[in-house]
Specification:
heterodimer; A: 126 residues; alpha+beta; two-stranded antiparallel ribbon; 32% helix; B: alpha/beta; 6-stranded mixed β-sheet; 6 strands
């Protein structure tokens, strides 16, 4: 049975990514996104993983089919005075993140509580 | 071998006395998304203290596609001074579409593709430079939403690496600028409203980077 046309959105549980090393995680994300899927990762990514993902994305942009990614997580709340004092404990905080092909996912707004995105479907017949 | 030993001893002394008396020489990376005004700010710093310029600027995104470095720039404020090696990095983005250069900026398809390819290489190089800088000036456009993922990702990486950062809330010459929004978004870092284009408030900026990066 074939699926009707549309963009596939996968919710990926924390337990799925937990056993993966960073490089493996990046590869998994890029393979899925380059296949046209939008992913919502429950566990998010650390800032160094996000930077690695951007680098890997740039290396794979082919200027034809894959033009990059859209990625958004909630903006982090500003740290409390306590967190600022114990700065080290707050580093690498992770929050749920949505990642998709730049041609299929568009962010329309975000703040510390909400990420608003549009999933762009290809025009009929395309 | 004696040279290597000397360098190690020298480095250990620099670290020890740098920690006690503050650093005198730092390598700073200028980071931010495309078109935030990174090269305009780099030009401002270099022109103010050496009379030279760093690189060309343009309203077309990704004008800077290779990191550029200017060494030994001595900046002064009050009775203090600091020597900077300034690295102007390409803008960091998560997507680069050559159609944008063609449709919005009148480039030919070949020019657009070439610029896009160079821009992707520039992003990779900019992120690689994070491993080799002592401190960062993060340039944000104060007329734009501060919560972009690029800003959040860069700041997260700086915090994870414990690199000192000063946020330059640039373009306050624009009527729509809102440096207060940037200040409330990132209260954990010094945010200096300025206009790299006109030079407004750069004295305060120099004072802050000397105090914060030494």
């Amino acid at each position: 049975m074939t699926n009707p046309p549309g963009i596939r959105l996968d919710l990926v549980a924390q337990d799925r990514l937990k056993p993966m090393q960073s490089a493996e995680k990046i590869r998994f994300i890029l393979d899925e996104v380059e296949a046209g899927k939008v992913l919502v990762l429950e566990s998010g990514l650390t800032p160094p993983e996000e930077a690695q993902l951007i680098q890997a994305t740039m290396a794979e942009i082919d200027h034809e089919h894959f033009l990059g990614i859209e990625m958004q997580s909630y903006a982090l709340d500003p740290p409390t005075r306590w967190e600022r004092w114990f700065h080290g404990f707050t580093k690498g905080k992770r929050r749920t993140i949505v990642i998709g092909p730049a041609t299929a996912l568009k962010t329309i707004g975000k703040d510390t509580r909400t990420v608003e995105t549009l999933i762009l479907t290809p025009p009929a017949g395309a | 071998m004696p040279v290597a030993v000397f360098e190690k001893v020298n480095s250990a002394f620099s670290k020890l006395f740098g920690g006690i008396f503050g650093k005198k020489h730092v390598k700073i990376g200028i980071y931010g998304p495309p078109n935030a005004g990174k090269t305009t700010l780099a030009n401002r710093i270099v022109r103010d203290w050496t009379g030279e310029i760093m690189g060309s600027t343009s309203p077309i995104p990704h004008e800077t596609r290779r990191a550029r470095r200017k060494a030994d720039i001595v900046i002064k404020s009050g009775g203090s001074s600091l020597t900077l090696d300034v690295i102007d990095t390409p803008g960091i983005a998560t997507k680069i579409d050559f159609h944008e250069f063609v449709e919005q900026h009148g480039m030919t398809e070949d020019e657009g593709r070439r610029r896009a390819k160079e821009a992707t290489e520039g992003v990779i190089e900019a992120i690689r430079w994070l491993e080799d800088v002592d401190a960062v000036i993060l340039v944000m456009d104060s007329a734009e939403d501060p919560f972009t993922q690029v800003n959040v990702t860069i700041l997260g990486n700086l915090e994870a690496r414990k690199l000192p950062v000063v946020i330059a809330a640039n373009k306050i010459d624009l009527p729509s600028s809102s440096p207060a929004t940037l200040k409330s978004a990132f209260p954990q870092h010094p945010v200096i409203p300025l206009s790299a284009l006109t030079g407004y408030n750069v004295d305060q900026f120099y004072k802050t980077i000397i105090r914060h990066f030494r």
